[in-house]
Design a protein that fits this description.
alpha+beta; Phosphoenolpyruvate Carboxykinase, domain 1; Phosphoenolpyruvate Carboxykinase, domain 3; nine-stranded mixed β-sheet; 16 helices; about 20% strand; binds guanosine-5'-triphosphate; binds sulfopyruvate; binds manganese (II) ion
Length: about 575
């Protein structure tokens, strides 16, 4: 049924190892997907939601021990340990294959092996890459069919090429003590066992499009980044594109789908979403940096998504969506999550499958990392360039994290190398997107700490090299922080739609339209240059969150130094010298 020699060989090996009762090739047709939805509803893997209110929408609950990415069980398996670097878990590839094959052996017995040919990026784009994921989970098939381009068209494009990524997913017994997410960048292979949750098993996403792709990008001269891509249109109809990297659950999807406040709308501003999580960026023939979103859908955080915070995301989820670990409202067979509205259902089932009354029960009904999987085409603000095979030209790169203190609302780096330094010293408070403690500050360079598929010191070097190649066409690099808090722990900056006020300053800086104030860390806005009209925020408060406190930054230097020490000789000299410059400026 498949003519590609290397794919056939892989499938033969895998079916001998995993021992499925049956093999089904995912052809990408709606008929086949509908059959699978029906099978999953019969088995209880999916619950069909109210067809009138949420057409073609389903609910899925994962195992209680399997609700987020597991960074401590994620490995980069390279022949040399140093290739994985100090920030990744490492395993010897031979040992890893042996262990994983042992765990997965015969685990498809009594089940079906689904074969998913998928393309990251438009099937016909020269920038795209192909993968084949095998899985025993219909949930994975249906999610992959939303998140990527799947089906026989992908095999047609592949022809008899051996240039594709092998993805092996085996649910096994969802045993968290035998859960492993392993990457073999030297073999273009990913193996995931004992999980059935999003980022651990939708292998096109973080595993391929970031970990494997970042490794490929280092060899091939491009960047695979944990970035949203958005376009801002002004009243003349000109659109400028920004790529922004924030750690998991720090606001990418929200910024990507931003709705400008009234006074901006009146002035003709529109925001267009190209991508909400991942950007692949290459230097174009015109020497500018061009970005595509390799995905075809959104795997977004549900809690906090509502009519005010992100109406575009809410509209996107109103049909053709798979909800994971949210509340099921038994009265009308719809879904609910914390922060959707002030009216939690009383007659409901929580994310763990237990009876739940939102008016009485104190425990959250939806898991904090509950998610929606929706097709990109549903998004009301989807960019018309979404399907453009060449992507969009990037004017500005923005880094950002969740910092209650220290980092100002926005600042601009001095030049490319200083911007790479700014990305490399990013730190952010941890969120529910990965298992482990929440709210703990950690260094997360370029929001890639959990996703860089090779030595992060070499990754910094690659960023510096890209700047050298881009020369004067390099985008300007900025840093933002929506999350500064006051004494009572409340966010000072209103965030969400109002973030366009900061993006406007960023684009104004790119076009040399406004001046800025120099500080030891870079340029911050004069408060008069951030448009506060229509906003209940005083200029004093704004100045408070624009402040760069020298004594706090002196402490920060110590943290940066101990983080940098990890990289030893792999830390590029350019970054050492940027750090020295910062130290001098803080004196
Ligand atoms: P991943 O999908 O895990 O990569 O997350 P993400 O980066 O796409 O984050 P998302 O946009 O889903 O937002 C995560 C959380 O941050 C939600 O609870 C949002 O409500 C909150 N959030 C997003 N933007 C802002 C903002 O501008 N200000 C504040 N205070 N909160 C925000
Ligand atoms: C993230 O954690 O950054 C996500 C969700 O986008 S996951 O796909 O699980 O990685
Ligand atoms: Mn997101």
């Amino acid at each position: 049924m498949i003519s590609n020699t290397s794919v056939n060989k892989f499938l033969e090996e895998m079916s001998a190892l995993l021992n499925p009762d049956e093999i089904i090739l995912i052809d990408g047709t709606e008929n086949q997907l509908q059959e699978l939805r029906e099978i999953a509803c019969k088995s209880g893997e999916l619950i069909k939601l109210n067809e009138e209110k949420l057409p073609n929408c389903y609910l899925h609950r994962t195992a209680i021990n399997d609700v987020a990415r597991v960074e401590d069980r994620t490995f980069i398996c390279t022949t040399k340990k140093d290739a994985a670097g100090p920030t990744n878990n490492w395993m010897d590839p031979a040992d890893a294959y042996k262990m994983l094959y042992n765990i997965a052996k015969n685990s498809y017995k009594g089940k079906t092996m689904y074969v998913i040919p998928f393309s990251m990026g438009h099937i016909n784009s020269s920038l795209s890459k192909i993968g084949i994921e095998i899985t025993d989970s219909i949930y994975v098939v249906l999610n992959m069919a939303i998140m990527t381009r799947v089906g026989t068209a992908v095999l047609d494009k592949l022809g008899n090429s051996n240039n594709w990524v092998r993805g092996i997913h085996a649910s096994c017994s969802i045993d968290e003590n035998n859960r492993y997410i392993c990457h073999f960048p030297e073999d273009n292979t990913i193996i995931s066992v004992n999980s059935a949750y999003g980022g651990n098993v939708l292998l096109g996403k973080k595993c391929f499009a970031l970990r494997i792709a970042s490794y490929q990008g280092n060899w091939e001269g491009w960047l695979a980044e944990h970035m949203l891509i958005l376009g801002i249109e002004n009243k003349l109809g000109e659109v400028k594109y920004i790529a922004a990297a924030f750690p998991s659950a720090c606001g990418k999807t929200n910024l990507a789908m931003l709705i400008p406040p009234e006074e901006y709308k009146k002035n003709g501003y529109k925001v267009w979403c190209v991508g909400d999580d991942i950007a692949w960026m290459r230097i174009g023939e015109d020497s500018r940096l061009w970005a595509i979103n390799p995905e075809n859908g959104f795997f977004g955080v549900a809690p906090g998504t509502n009519k005010t915070s992100n109406p575009n995301a809410l509209a996107t989820t109103s049909s053709d969506t798979i909800f994971t670990n949210v509340v099921l409202n038994l009265d009308d067979n719809t879904v609910w999550w914390e922060g959707l509205d002030e009216n939690p259902p009383e007659n409901a089932i929580d994310w763990m499958g237990k009876r739940w009354n939102g008016k009485v029960d104190k425990t959250p009904g939806a898991h904090p990392n509950s998610r929606f999987t929706s097709p990109a085409k549903n998004c009301p603000c989807l960019s018309r360039e979404f399907e453009n095979e060449n992507g969009v030209p990037i004017s500005a790169i923005v880094f950002g994290g969740r910092r209650a203190q220290t980092t100002p609302l926005v600042y601009e780096s001095r030049d490319w190398n200083n911007g790479v330094f700014v990305g490399s010293i990013m730190a952010s408070e941890t969120t529910a997107a990965a298992s482990g403690k929440i709210g703990k500050l950690r260094h997360d360079p370029m929001a890639m700490l959990p996703f860089c598929g090779y030595n992060m010191g070499d990754y910094f070097k690659h960023w510096l090299d890209m700047g050298g190649k881009l020369g004067e066409n390099a985008p300007k690099i900025f840093n933002v922080n929506w999350f500064r808090t006051d004494e009572s722990g409340k966010f000072i900056w209103p965030g969400f739609g109002d973030n366009i006020r900061v993006l406007e300053w960023i684009l104004n800086r790119c076009e040399n339209k406004v001046s800025a104030k120099e500080t030891p860390i870079g340029f911050v806005p004069y408060s008069k240059d951030i448009n506060l009209s229509g906003l209940d925020l005083s200029e004093n408060k704004l100045n408070e969150i624009l402040e760069v406190d020298k004594s706090i930054w002196q402490n920060e230097i110590n943290d940066i130094e101990s983080f940098y020490e990890k990289f030893g000789d792999n830390l590029p000299n350019e970054l050492k010298s940027e750090l020295q410059k910062l130290k001098n400026k803080l004196k």
